[in-house]
Amino acid sequence: PGAGGTLCKAEGMAPGVGGTLVYFSCADCAVEASQVEAAGGTLQRGKMSIGEYGAIALALDTEGNLFGLHSMA
Length: 73
Fold this sequence. Notes:
Layout: E1 23-25, H1 29-33, E2 42-49, E3 55-60, E4 66-71
Parallel strand pairs: 1-4
Antiparallel strand pairs: 2-3, 3-4
């Protein structure tokens, strides 16, 4: 319940345009990632493990904005 979040430092990312990456929480990010292209977006990276922190996938929306999907499964 509620909104969760965290700040993470990532190599190659800087503050400003292109520097913030928003992740949406999912039960299983592979499910949402499989729907990106049908919705007009582009999948940049399919589901990948981030160890004890779960898994993520990365996609571009129809306007070219990068966003992430996160799940613990």
